[in-house]
Structure formats: C-alpha cells, structure tokens
Write a structure and sequence with these properties.
Number of strands of chain B: 10
Largest sheet of chain A: 2 strands, antiparallel
Distance between the termini of chain B: 37 Å
Order of helices and strands of chain A: HHHHEEEHHHHEHHH
Strand content of chain A: under 5%
Structural class of chain A: mainly alpha
Largest sheet of chain B: 6 strands, mixed
CATH superfamily of one domain in chain B: P-loop containing nucleotide triphosphate hydrolases
Oligomer: heterodimer
Mean pLDDT of chain A: 89
Distance between the termini of chain A: 53 Å
Order of helices and strands of chain B: EEEHEEHEHHHHEHEHEEHH
Structural class of chain B: alpha/beta
Low-confidence stretches of chain B: none
Number of strands of chain A: 4
Bound molecules: adenosine-5'-triphosphate, magnesium ion
CATH class of one domain in chain B: Alpha Beta
Radius of gyration of chain A: 19 Å
Strand order of the largest sheet of chain B: 6-7-8-3-9-10
Helix content of chain A: over 70%
CATH architecture of one domain in chain B: 3-Layer(aba) Sandwich
Strand content of chain B: 25-35%
Chain lengths: 309, 237
C-alpha cells in the first residue's frame, strides 16, 4: 500500500503546484478587471486581448533579440517580462484614452459596446499581424532541470512563474495599501466626487489603473507562452473569461479578492481536471462562476453587491 | 481671501438649476446660505469646488476664475469642502481619510501640525484612527468629514449641512467647533437646514429660492425678518 499512497500524494501535489502556477496567471489578469471595475464600474472586455498582446509581444522580443537559445537565467526572463509589461501598459493607457474616456459621461452601455469593439479590434489586429495559426514559444529558454522538493519534482519554469506572479501581486498590494497614489486609487474607487474634493486628479488615477492592469495582464500573457509553449490570437477570450470568473469569485472591485480568486480557481481547475475529467477542465471555471453568482454574488471578499454591468 | 460668485448659471441637462446667482464672501466671515430642498445650495457649493461646471457666470477666488480650473487644482488654492452626506471613504481608515484631506499638501510638517490640530478638536478620531471610517457612528463620521476638510489647510471652508442627522446636543457641539475654526482664521460658507442655528452663528446670510437669491442681509436682520421666520424658522417662537 505504501508506494501507492506515495503516488497518490505525488499526483495531488503535482496538480496543486500546477494549479497555483496557472492560478497566479489568472490572478494577474483578474487584477486588471477588478481594478478597472473598481474605479469605472466597467468591465474592460478588451482586457483579455491585452493579455494576448502581451503573449505575442513576448514572443516577438524573444525572437528578435535572438534569445531562442538558453537565456540561462530566470533573471533574463524576468527582464523580458518587465519589457512586455511596459509595452502593454502603454497600449492599455491608449485604449482608455481612445475608447473609454470620451464615453465617461455617456450611458454605461456605450462604454460596454466600446469595450467589445476594442476587443474585436485588438483580436483582428493580432491576427493580421501574426497570423491565425498557433505560434510556438521557444522551449529551451531555461535549462529543463526540475527541482526536487519532498520527493516531488517541479519544473523550474513553474517555480519561476509562480514566484513572478507572487512578487507582482505583493508589489501591487503594497503599492495600493501603502503609498499616497495607491490610497488615491482606493479613494477614487469608493467615491470619485469626494476624491476630487480632496484634490485627487481622478483622470490620472484612471490612467494609472489602465497602466497597471494591462501591465499585469501582459505579463500573464507572456507567462502563458512560457508555460504552455504555444499561443493563439483567440487565447485572450478563454483566459479573460476565467480571470473574470476569478475576479467575481474573489469579489469584483476587491484587489486581494482577485488574487485569492485567481489562485483558488487555478487550483480548483487543476484538481478538477485530474480527479473529475480532463475534458471538463474549461467547463469547471464556468460552473464555478455560475455557482458563485447563485450562492454568493458578492464573491468571497466582496462587500457590496455588484449591481451594474 | 475673498470669494465672489457672479451671475452664476448651472444647468443639469436642459434644466436650469441656478439662474444667475450673486454671492460674495469676505475674508474671516461666516456666511450662511439658506433655502428649501432642491433650491440649489449643494449645486452652488459643488460649482465653487469645480465639480460642476457653470453654463454662465463665474466664481472668483480673489481674481482667480475657479470655474476655469479643474477641481483638483482648486483645493490647493485654499478652498476645501465638507460635502453633504459626509462622503467619508468608508473602507479606508480614519487616518487614511484624514491624510487624503491633505492630498495636495507637500509640506509634511504642516500636515503633521494639522493632524495634531484635528485630533485636538476631535479626540475621538485619534482614538479611532486605525478603524475603518464606515464603522464610525454618524456623528463621528461628520467629525471625520470636517477634520478631513481641515487637513487641506483651507483659508475658505465650505460646509454642506454639517448638522444633518445629528442629535441636538451634537449639533450644538459641531456648531461651536465651526465657530472655533472660524476664529482660527478660516472663512466659512455654511449651508444649513437648521436655519436658526446657522443665522445665530453667521455674520451674513443669503436666502436661495429655486436657483435665485431672494434675500441677502446681516444674520440678525434675517433672523428678525418675518418672511424668513415664516419660511425657514417655523414661524415666531
Ligand atoms: N446631478 C444632477 N443631475 C440632475 N439634476 C440634479 C443633479 N444634482 C441636483 N440636481 C437637481 O438640481 C436641483 C438643486 O439640487 P441641489 O442638490 O443643489 O439642492 P439643495 O439646495 O442642496 O437641496 P437639499 O437641501 O435637499 O440638499 C434639484 O432640483 C435637484 O434635483
Ligand atoms: Mg443639498
């Protein structure tokens, strides 16, 4: 019985760490949804496509910098992720200027339609530039060693990616909780009018949110490329929906909620795919979404009912 | 510093809410604006603070046209508002709320001094400084809202119905606090439903009716005015 039991445990831990790595990616994307929702009460439907853009820009950087051989160090990968973050952040801020700011005072539905339009625009732009077929990430970036921990072998990439997502989330949390700008972001999310009475430039706060969210989403896109090895111009749709589910699960508008929701969803999905059915992997997220909406629409950490689109 | 509201007109959509308002506030004064619900009092204050843009006329702080500035530049000129309904940031702590009041203040020492002053005025806020603002009682939230306004180090403070929903004893104490703030050199513009108390506190008053000033006088004179007594003081007492 003993070796059998060990195997069972190993499979479980294997799937748990996989779930955490994927969950970290969901969490990073979910933060973009939740922060934008927080200040604008708008679901940025183009956010999933910013994630896709991150994946493709990451690929372009890897190929054009000739880094297809070993980068050799996790630090090299992190620098590339940072570059992708910067680029996608700029695209995010431009998106806000072009598609959302002009509609700030229009009925909410206009902004929703604009978001959908932006999403379609981005998806088609990516398809035209990169083609409709799957693109393959170089797979030999890091030595394919795996680390042994408690008799469990974990690929280095998984650890690097999970570490990166934790570092980014911690950084964001500290920024939002401890800094003056972070407090202004929280204040604007609660009451924009009162925030303006404090002398907060709400337009600037919104710009920060549209820099930070897309930066994290773009990083997540590149991380998916690194983790799974292939990307497609429609990938933002499924990941976006899952991350959106994660944001709802944690309580939309709530930053720690998005982190928790993402990690939780990653683990649920990974364990579900193993123990229930692999074929149901994607469906699990949506079952989770439906269940939360029925059982606890405010999500785990959400206090206020999200009554708007 | 002197505040001048000149021929101010404001529209919400097609509805004219302010129809050519003239108000002036001299340095050191307490000026009260009275009026029934919907007369346009809050709209007036929000226009002064730059959150509502006028369709005609203007607001001048000395010679600076406030109506041409963005709201976030106005606080820095020394004009703060304690809005109707308190509007404290409920999921932020008391201390975070107070610090946001000083958002545009660069001088850290000044922020520290003002914080000390606010805590002296409202010791309860000091004791509750780590608590979420949304968990304070209504009266405490009003103190927080006033304290937050003072953190901006204003030369002119706009107060919109600071006594709303407070027990009579607390109203008295809030009003004496307003008096004390004024004595420390802050000009006050006070919008109040409690007209009697407001007129007792104020130097001068304006009566606003559906977007127009219908009366303006010294506070004692308004207190003695039969029309004002009938409409806002519930008749003679
Ligand atoms: N954002 C808005 N959009 C449309 N109409 C508004 C808006 N804000 C106020 N109004 C209308 O403008 C008029 C004046 O409102 P305002 O809030 O200035 O009145 P008030 O004198 O402060 O009243 P109260 O004593 O009830 O606070 C009201 O008829 C109100 O319905
Ligand atoms: Mg009002």
């Amino acid at each position: 019985m003993a070796p059998d039991k060990g195997k069972v445990m190993q499979l479980f831990l294997e799937q748990l760490t996989n779930g955490l790595a994927v969950g970290g990616i969901y969490a990073l994307i979910a933060l973009g949804y939740t922060m934008v929702y927080g200040v604008l009460k708008l679901i940025n439907f183009a956010h999933g496509d910013l994630f896709t853009i991150g994946a493709y820009l990451g690929l372009t950087l890897l190929l054009s910098l000739g880094l297809t051989g070993h980068i050799g160090s996790a630090a090299g990968i992190l620098v590339l992720i940072l570059m992708v973050m910067g680029l996608v952040a700029v695209i995010g801020a431009l998106l806000e200027r072009a598609a959302y700011r002009p509609l700030r005072t229009s009925p909410r539905l206009s902004a929703v339609v604009s978001a959908l339009g932006a999403s379609i625009f981005f998806q088609n732009a990516i398809m035209l530039i990169y083609g409709a077929r799957f693109r393959v990430y170089p797979h030999d970036l890091l030595p394919v060693t795996a680390i042994s921990l408690f008799g469990l072998t974990i690929p280095v990439m998984r650890i690097v990616l999970f570490g990166a997502s934790i570092v980014m989330m911690t950084g964001l949390y500290l920024f939002v909780q401890r800094t003056r700008t972070g407090t202004a972001i929280r204040a604007a999310a609660i009451d924009q009018g009162a925030a303006r009475l404090m002398g907060i430039d709400v337009n600037r706060v919104i710009m920060y949110v549209f820099l930070i969210g897309p930066a994290l989403g773009g990083a997540a896109g590149m991380m998916v490329g690194l983790y799974y090895g292939q990307i497609n111009f429609t990938m933002g749709w499924v990941y976006g929906l899952k991350a959106f589910t994660a944001a709802i699960l944690g309580g939309i508008g709530n930053i720690p909620g998005a982190m928790l929701g993402g990690l939780l969803l990653g683990v649920i999905e990974s364990l579900g795919a193993t123990y229930i059915s692999l074929a149901w992997k994607d469906a699990i997220s949506f079952i989770v979404l439906i269940l939360i909406l029925i059982v606890r629409p405010t999500g785990i950490l959400g206090e206020r009912v999200a009554d708007k689109v | 510093m002197r505040l001048r509201i000149e021929n101010l007109e404001v529209k919400y959509g097609n509805v004219r809410v302010l129809k050519g308002l003239n108000i002036r506030v001299e340095q050191g004064e307490i000026v009260t604006i009275l009026g029934a619900n919907g007369a346009g009092k809050s709209t007036t204050l929000m226009t002064v603070s730059g959150l509502v843009k006028p369709s005609g006329g203007g607001v001048y702080l000395d010679d600076v046209p406030l109506h041409k500035l963005e709201a976030h530049h106005i606080v820095n000129l020394g004009l703060a508002q304690v809005p109707e309904g308190r509007r404290v940031f409920g999921t932020l702590t008391v201390l975070e709320n107070l610090r946001l009041g000083a958002y545009t203040t660069v001088d850290k020492a000044l922020v520290g001094r003002n914080l000390g002053w606010v805590f002296e005025m409202f010791p309860i806020l000091n004791r509750r400084s780590g608590q979420l603002a949304g968990t304070l009682s209504g009266g405490e939230q009003q103190m927080l809202a006033i304290g937050r306004g003072l953190m901006a180090n204003p030369k002119i403070l706009l107060l919109d119905e600071p006594s709303l929903g407070l027990a009579p004893i607390l109203v008295k104490s809030i009003f004496s606090t307003i008096k004390a703030i004024n004595r420390s050199g802050v000009t006050i513009v006070l919008v109040e439903q409690n007209a009697r108390l407001a007129l007792k506190l104020a130097d001068r008053g304006y009566v606003l009716e559906t977007g127009r000033i219908v009366l303006e006088d010294k506070a004692e004179a308004l207190l003695a005015n039969p029309e004002v007594q009938n409409a806002y003081l519930g008749g003679m007492h």
